[in-house]
Design a protein that fits this description.
The protein has a domain of 84 residues. Helix content is 71%, strand content 0%. The chain is globular and about 45 Å long. It binds zinc ion. Zinc ion binds next to α5.
Length: 122
């Protein structure tokens, strides 16, 4: 039997899922169209505001990074919720050892123990 309080982690995962989905939806709403179009638009409408163009570019890059990560996190959250249903939550999907509690607290969607994660990232 596992000592992990899966119901608590399920709540956290569901809440994180809502948060990430909201962030993704916000990204899509705020940034329709391509980056190039937006930068050209700003450059064309503000004569000497090069800094503004730089800021828009930087902001977009960060947003895209967040978007990519968010989709990975969503995928991981769904997989973790499935493991809770299957009763395998908190167990490393690679070596079947128990994932340390602290790791789950920091990343409830973690599917690998730290050793396996390091190996996977190799
Ligand atoms: Zn492992």
């Amino acid at each position: 039997m596992t000592s992990i309080d899966t119901e608590r982690f399920r709540d956290e995962l569901l809440e994180e899922r809502r948060r990430v989905e909201h962030a993704l939806a916000t990204l899509r709403d705020e940034h329709p169209g391509s980056l190039d179009e937006e930068v050209e638009e700003i450059a064309a409408t503000s004569d000497n505001h090069l800094a503004e163009t730089a800021t828009a570019t930087l902001g977009r890059e960060i947003d895209y990074t967040l978007g990519d990560n968010a989709e990975q996190v969503l995928f991981g959250i769904d997989a973790a919720l499935k493991r809770i249903d299957e009763g395998t939550y908190g167990t490393c999907t690679s070596c079947a050892c128990e994932i340390p509690r602290e790791r789950l607290e920091a990343a409830p969607w973690a599917s690998l123990c730290i050793d396996c994660k390091r190996r996977a990232e190799g």
